Amino acid sequence: MEPLVSVCIPAYNNAAYIKETIDSVLGQTYTNLELVICDDHSKDDTVRVIEEIKDDRIKLYKNEKNLGMSGNWNRCLSKCTGEFIKLICADDMLAPDALEKEVGALMKHPGAVLAESDTKLFDLNGKPKGFYKRYKTSGLTDGKTIARAGFFVKNYFGAPLANTFRRSVLEETGGFDPWYTYILDYDFWVQLACMGDVYIIHEPLNFFRVRNDSNTGNVMAGDKTADYVKEHIHLVTKFKEELHLSNADIRRSVRIRKFRNFAAGIYLKLFVRK
Fold first, then answer.
1. Which helix or strand (DSSP H or E) is residue 189 part of?
2. Taking Cα atoms as reference points, which of 60, 178, 196 lies closest to residue 141?
3. Pairing between strand 33-39 and 128-132?
4. 3-class SS at 6?
5. Angle of the 184-193 helix axis to the 225-238 helix axis, nearest 10
6. How far apart, in whole angstroms, are the C-alpha atoms of residue 216 and residue 74?
7. How many CB atoms lie within 10 A of CB 238?
8. 154-164 pLDDT, tens digit each
9. Residue 57 phi, psi dihedral angles, 5° rounding
C-alpha cells in the first residue's frame, strides 16, 4: 500500500484562490493523502469555501486567534500523520502528478530527505510569467552542495510547494523558525538539505502565483528589501560552520542577494505588478 502523504495548506484570507489550490491537491494521481488545512482566523470567507468542499481527506483546523505565519505553518506540520509532507500556500497549485513523482523519488532513494521540482510562475490572472528552476543537476545531489551554492546564486529550494520531505526528519529541525518574517521557509529547507541528499526533478510540477501583496511581492519589489537582507545575513551566519562559509563568503552572498532583489523588483514592476 502507498504510504500516507500529508499535504498542508496554511490559510489566511484566501477565499478567492483556495478552492483551486484544494482541487489541485485532491486531484493528484497519488491518492493516499490527507489534506491538513489550518485557517489562521481569516476575516473573509476562506472557511466557508473550504467547508463547501466535500472530501473525507480534508482535515480543517480553525485557529481561535491569529498565530502568524510561522505559528500557523508549524501548527499545520504538527497535525500531519503522513510519512511524507508537502506544504503549499493557499493560492498556489500542483500538477496532477507532482506527488506521484516526488514521493516516488523519496521511496526509491532512502538517503534523500527532500524531493523537489521546477516551478511555473503565474500572475493573478493566470498568465504565465516564466519558470523558477532548481539546482542544475538532476536526481540525487548532496543537500549541503545545493544549500551552499544557493547562497551565491539564488534560493534553489524556492517556494514551499516545490518541496516534499520526510516527516521523520521534522523533529530534528524544530519546524519553521519564528525569528524570520520573510525567509522562514528558506531556513527550513537549508536545515533539511544539511541532513542528506536532495532529489531534483526538472519538470514544472508546481505553479506559483506572483502577487503584489504577498511576502515575495513586497520583498522583491523593493518595499522590504532591507528587512529581507537582514534575515539573509542571519541565515548565512547561522550556517557558517555547517557549510564552511568564510566572512568573505558571507559578504559576497549579501551583495549578490541585494542585486537579485533589485533585479527581481524591476521584473515584477515591469511584467507582474499590474
1. helix 184-193
2. 196
3. unpaired
4. strand
5. 20
6. 20
7. 15
8. 999 999 999 99
9. -80, -10
